Amino acid sequence: MTNAQDQLLSLLVRDEPRVLTRITALFGRRGYNIKSLSVGTTEHPGVSRMTIVVHGDRGVVEQAIKQLEKLHDVVKIIDHSLEKFVDRELVLVKVAITPESRVEVRQIAEDFRSRIVDVGRHALTFEVTGDEGKLTAFIEQMRPFGILETMRTGRIALTRGSNADVPSHVYHEGETEALKPVMEGVEAREERARGVPNLF
């Protein structure tokens, strides 16, 4: 009997070419199923944040973490199962409409606090932000009307409050002890890169 469920990880990684390829290849080689993956810049130049949802049991995510720690591109790993966190996702949904269904579709969208981002004669496109459950519920409510297209960004997450992996006061008072491992890793790798002679 399996206890598979979604496991949520955040990675602070070097903002360099082919980092994403190396990380996804690691998961692929070991047969780990990535359910969603989102990447974006952080408040630290040269560091990106990658949020990965892996479907499997705890053993899967623990093995993934051990393998990720071996990659020089990975500065820090945050396992969100160990801390309280807040997560969000965005979806765009294009729904077919008729003169008869237009009012009902818009009412459902209003109930979900969604936003209309495109209007056509035969379709409306909605933007919805929230947790995974809210987005799934919205799509299911719209399905009877006819969903033409959807696009989900995948989940993004941060640890809550004082448990944050990088404390909130770092944005106002400079570096803290909690931030040192991140920045020291970046600076050390940059120094090593500068030390390599340019042969071209």
UniProtKB/TrEMBL annotation:
It comes from the Bacteria. Residues 8-82 form the ACT domain. Pathway: Amino-acid biosynthesis; L-isoleucine biosynthesis; L-isoleucine from 2-oxobutanoate: step 1/4; Amino-acid biosynthesis; L-valine biosynthesis; L-valine from pyruvate: step 1/4. InterPro entries: Acetalactate_synth_ssu, Acetolactate_synth/TF_NikR_C, Acetolactate_synth_ssu_C, ACT-like_dom_sf, ACT_dom, AHAS_ACT, AHAS_small-like_ACT. GO terms for molecular function: acetolactate synthase activity; acetolactate synthase regulator activity. The keyword Transferase applies. One of its GO terms (cellular component) is cytosol. Belongs to the acetolactate synthase small subunit family. This is Acetolactate synthase small subunit. The gene is ilvN.
